[in-house]
Amino acid sequence: MKIIEYIEEDDRYKCLSCKVHLAATNCVVSKEFKGSTGTAYLIEDVINTFDGSTEERELMSGLHVVCDIFCVNCCNYVGWRYLKAYNEDQKYKEGKFILERALICKA
Ligand SMILES: [Zn+2]
Asked: pLDDT category, 1, cuts 50, 70, 90?
């Protein structure tokens, strides 16, 4: 059984393909990130996703441990989650999420 959560605020990001709520727009930390499809947003908290496998990934800002995240409803890839950053100045990303702009839409 899928458990779908909802965001009360009117300003929120949804999964592009199934419109399930993913994040409130006021949880965006930065819009200056780059994902595999182009612009990506760093977000404090994301709901209605499940984790893919954990892996080490070399990103523009160095080596990180990440896992891809997928929409809990339609199973489409929407971004990734930072589990660990090795560089001290990248530690603020740990526990935060990336949503790819091309894979989400605004309510
Ligand atoms: Zn979806």
From this structure: low
